[in-house]
Amino acid sequence: MTAPVVSRRIVFSGLGALGVAAALAGCAGGGDGGGGSSPAVDAGADLVGTAEVPVGGGVVLTDQKVVVTQPTEGTFKAFTAVCTHQMLLVTSVEDGSIRCDNHGSVYSAETGEVEGGPARSALAEVPIEVRDDRILAA
Ligand code: FES
Question: 19 lies in a domain?
Fold first, then answer.
């Protein structure tokens, strides 16, 4: 397996196994030990194209600390990508769940609520707006 050059966006398919992306995301924690738990987005910021967000999956935007999901076709959601367990970044979205492989927490890709793992608190929703084929912070 080769490690491709990966942009700041790591796209996860709801169907495929992207082990490379998961491995890369594993070292993408904030690492600031506090104060860095909020998404770094301003209202109106362009987050991602709708075509880049797979149905049932999502995209972890490591720079912005936001995870954008598409739980059902045409419905987009965004949450902080900072896991509520130990404030590391979540690592993937698949099969309708946001996963943090750092310690195994799982969140709903539709609501951000905890579905499993050590995390006890939901991921905070980030308001978004879909304009044409782009998803913007609202
Ligand atoms: S930081 Fe996400 S499960 Fe621990």
Answer: no
